[in-house]
Amino acid sequence: MTLLTSQLRYSSCLLSVRINRSFLPGVKTSKEKINNSRRMDSVLKSVLSSSIAPSDSISKTIDAHLHIWASPVEAASGYPYHPGQEPALDGSSQFLLQCMDEAGVDGALIVQPINHMFDHSLVTCVLKKHPTKFAGCCLANPAEDGSGIRQLEHLVLKDGYRAVRFNPYLWSSGQKMTNEVGSALFGKAGELGIPVGIMCMKGLALHLSEIEELCSNFPSTVVILDHLGFCKPTLNSNDNEESDNLSALLRLSKFPQIYVKFSALFRLSRKSFPYEDISPLLSKVVSSYGSNHIMWGSDFPFVVPECGYRGAKESANFIASKIQLSTSDLESIMGRTASQLFQDSWKSQ
Questions:
Q1: Mean pLDDT of the chain
Q2: Is the pTM of this model over 0.85?
Q3: How far, in whole angstroms, is CA 153 from its chain's centroid?
Q4: Phi/psi of residue 247, nearest 5 degrees
Q5: Which domains does the chain have, with CATH numbers?
Q6: Phi, psi angles (nearest 5°) of residue 68
């Protein structure tokens, strides 16, 4: 596929993004947003021309982190939202498949969204409908009665989920992921042979001791740190909070069972698309973990109003080009690592 064709496909996807956003409640069309979209088109053309190579040259691209949730019609017909978690964006599987096709993304790991909390029925339905396109990451339920452990076993053994997400902010107030239930869930994941993804939204340094304890006690359980551990570029030499988070991220590389998601770049960058200030972070993570322990993820649908789905993919290529990654390293980050970690879930495509 030529670079011109890639650009045309992106324009088609961006148009669909604008159309979908125009029907969302609370989203308004304005002259400013139109100008921002035009500026995004211009920036993306520059990114495409300066990346390592057209991303379509990579054999298989796997999005290791995204979400879906019910459309309003689906929510009304059997897949209700968790109270207070009604989404403001289109996160339907139909929209996702359209974006993936137009961006040239071959497969994805669907992470159970908070919008449906512990009701996995929608994601399970989509996984069964598209078994060669998607793998699933369920959400750990740290209920003190231990019911979450039974649910985890069912989701993995019966419904085929390939990973589980720990959200430390779902634990009861004052409780840590290392409590009795958390340790049992973590150990069970290892027994089942699935990775544990950990979301440290409030800062990786806050959860460093918990992660170290869990990894030390359960060395056979694989861990994935979401979104570069939520590390952001430091503002200056006195930015102690971000320095601590980065130190925690690099320190955890001593555990060979830990992987890192190079994902949700718009959440981490202090700059606009294509998030060039993430380059030094990626360079340090590659040096510490190796590209075979890093995987790209878009964080769909949250990324759509930021830079578009195709933009998420191309920003990753652009950032990689700034640190002169080899083609092999880039292929690992953009698909090979995820494919190997999740046991060739997309092999039959």
A1: 88
A2: yes
A3: 23
A4: -60, -40
A5: 3-341 (3.20.20.140)
A6: -135, 155
